[in-house]
Write a structure and sequence with these properties.
single chain; mainly alpha; Substrate Binding Domain Of Dnak, Chain:A, Domain 2; 2 domains; 2 strands; 4% strand
Length: 212
């Protein structure tokens, strides 16, 4: 086996073990992607080769990375049923509409790049949000905070993939790639802002859906 694959397999196993110690379980394929992305990010920021980045990615770096991931993932309540989860964030219907639209665009990215796992995750979020919305006839729809954080991460991951050269959805012109990425990231930031709003407060829409 090539040294690069050996290193990646070892670090993937170590990351999963470190997360398990922190009470978080993720699949081997997910851990592998996370380690790969972290290594690419380090190599890019430090302007070094991937091989050098591997040598510099110490046990201490792994532990710090695992702790950071555990905090982020725990906030998304992994494994919890969002339909049954406490709904504390009040979202106006226009914010829900914008969220659905953003999710749909991110799903198009997954479809264009044949990412079955991403499609499944995104469709699950979309379905859950739809069922929660259907539970109320009010202007303000109470939703679970972790669901918004899951959707925000999905949008961020889609934006990252497109920024790194992934296929754009059919019908989206290459000249708009940068704008497409910026919009997805803005939607993700908007959802995180809403997710952290004070209980009972009514959030504002983070952007105009169809600017003149």
């Amino acid at each position: 086996m090539r040294s690069r694959e050996t290193w990646l397999n070892t670090r993937t196993a170590e990351l999963r073990a470190a997360l398990l110690d922190l009470g978080v379980t993720i699949a081997d394929s997910e851990a592998r992607v996370l380690i790969n992305d972290k290594l690419d990010e380090y190599a890019r920021l430090m302007r070094v080769t991937r091989q050098t980045a591997q040598r510099n990615f110490t046990d201490e770096h792994l532990a710090i990375f695992a702790n950071s991931l555990a905090m982020t993932i725990s906030e998304e309540a992994p494994g919890a049923n969002m339909i049954e989860f406490e709904r504390k964030i009040l979202m106006p219907t226009n914010a829900l509409g914008l969220t659905n639209a953003a999710l749909a665009e991110a799903l198009k990215v997954a479809h264009s790049n044949l990412e079955d796992r991403s499609l499944t995750d995104g469709l699950s979020n979309l379905s859950t949000l739809g069922m929660i919305t259907a539970d109320t006839q009010d202007f303000l729809v109470p939703v679970p905070r972790p669901l918004l954080l899951r959707i925000a991460r999905f949008l961020d991951n889609s934006a990252k993939a497109v920024s790194e050269g992934a296929n754009l959805p059919d019908g989206v012109d290459e000249t708009t790639r940068s704008h497409f990425v910026t919009t997805l990231r803005r939607d993700a930031d908007g959802l995180r802002t809403i997710a952290n709003i004070e209980d009972g407060a009514v959030p504002k829409l983070w952007r105009t859906p169809n600017p003149p």
